[in-house]
Every structure is written in structure tokens, then in C-alpha cells.
Specification:
The chain has about 350 residues and is an alpha/beta fold. It is built from twelve helices and twelve strands.
Amino acid sequence: MNILIESPGINNINFVSGISSFTRLIINNNPNQKYFHFHIGNDNRSKLRLINYINTLKQIYCLPKFIKKNQIELVHQNLPVDYKGVIREYLVNVICKYLNVPVLLHIHGGKLFFESNTNFAISFLLKKLLYGSKIVIVQSEREKEFLFQNFRYNKINVLPNAIENQVVEFHLKEFNIEKIKILYLGRIEKEKGIYELLDALVLLKAKYDFQFILCGNGSCTSNFVEVCKNKLGCLFEYLGVVNGDTKYRILSASDYFILPSYFEGLPISLLEAMSFGLVPIITKVGAVPEVINDGVNGILIESYSSIDIYKKILFLIENTEKTKLISFNAYNTIQEKHSISRYVNELNLIYQII
């Protein structure tokens, strides 16, 4: 089947995007389908919003020609539920409907999911998006229930994210409290809870030695890196955007993975970290609570709370045997439930329904 799958750039190694990583993963691991990647969204965002809007409109303008040229039979839409994402993908959905091409709408969480104060216009467009699609994929039962309760839409499949099977052999980590390595891997944005994380690490600094490793980029990179250097000194290391073997080496060498986001879908970075046996410390947002069983295969924290982050890290440092068990369970969770082969098989079954 000729499938158009859209996302920001999948070949830009300096851009951090969960949706781009997901798209690249699907294309590389599903030989049963013929994918045509359509670049939409801005992966090198200009500070001038007008330029970003113009670029997006240009991309949408080129969509009908792309669909006709490649004889597209299905469009796999990837939707981040934020203001720009909903408006952009609504326009894409309308074009597909006009061209009589069926749409699979794949929702990846976002700022507006579960918000009760979402404005009427965005709710209206989201409802149009849902009913303009043949079928919808979400990452958790909670998201499925939310869409049904709020929009009375029920053509929904729950399909949690997956990752590529790692070729590295799993080794049980020692968690040496003399130098715990804490990893943040993702976009460096305020809504990822990075400043709450920093405040927690400043508290931790008074009691234990550690290394905070920051990987990724984003609009807050310059400021956040500078503040980390000032407040953490030699305990801090910034490595930029990492990929491939470099990323795997960092994951292998780290102990805790931390992501105190205000909102998420189901982060690919979380699943990657768990596959290396890192103990995940993450906010209970989006689909995360359906993957992380608090205290069993990870640690759940409250959003916006540096104190809770500090207390949970402290608990792990001071309970090494418990931490080792969580690490092992995190690894097993990925092996049993989030392999890419299993994911692709279920995705192809959904394609067949359409």
C-alpha cells in the first residue's frame, strides 16, 4: 500500500522530535508497506513566527500534488495536540477528504490533551479532525476514554509506542552512590520541567555527589545550559543532540533517566532508557502511567514539583537494592510489551481495516 506518513524532518540529526523519531522507526521497520514521507512542520524554527507560518502553509500547498504524484492510498497523520498542531493537521485532513484519500489519525499527546479550558475553536477543529478520519490511534486507554467522553468518537485503537530492539546485552547496573549519573534526554523546553529538575539537583548537591548529563536542544538551550553551569559546576555536562552509537553509549553509562514534563504522550526517550535498564523518574502524564507502575518498573513524580523530584532521587540513592529491582523490571517491560516487531504487526492490522 502506498502510504503518506507526515512529520517534521526525519533526517535532521540536530533536531529533537518524538514524532520524527517515531516516523523514522516505522519507515525503517515496516517493509510490508511503501511509505512516502511528507515533511510538515518546522524542524529549524525561526524566531520570527510569521516565517514559520509561511513555511507551513507552503508545505500544505504542496500536499495535493505530492498525493497525486505518488498515488497515495492512505495518509498516516501524526497529531501533536497543541494549538499549531491541531490547526495544521485540520487543514491536511480537509485536503485529504477533498482528494478522497482515507486518513489514519495518530495522536501523540500534547499540551491540550485533558485540558478542560481548551478554547471552543480548537475543540471544534479537533472534533472535525476525528470525524474526518477513518480510524484513530492513541497511546493509552485514558486517551481513548477522553476522546469518547468529550467527542463521542469511538473508532479508536490503543497502540502504545515501541522502540527498536537493542543489540546490546543487558547488564544489571551497580548504582554506585559515590557517583550516580542522571540523564535528561529530549527537547530543552520549559514545559519539560527542566527548571524544576535543576532546582531539585541543587538540593541534591548538598547531600550527594552525582553527574547530571543533559542531551538535546530547544529554545531554552543557551539559558538553561548557562544556569546549570553556574549552579552545578563540575557536576553538569552538556552533550548536545546525540544519536546512534553515541546515544547508546550514554544510555549504557547512565543510572537514572528523568523527564519531569508538564505533558507528554508516550515518550520514545523513556522507552529507550528503560531498554537499557535506566530507572525512569517521570511525571504521571499522558500515557506514562499505563507503562510505569510506580515503584515497580519506574518512579512517578508530580508535575511542577522540584521537592518531589528531589525526594524521589534521594529515595533511589538510599535504597540501592530496590533501585536494582526497578531497573531490571524496566528492562523487562520493554522486552515484553514494546518491541517494534510486535508494534508493526498491530499497525498493519489497523491499516487493513481501513
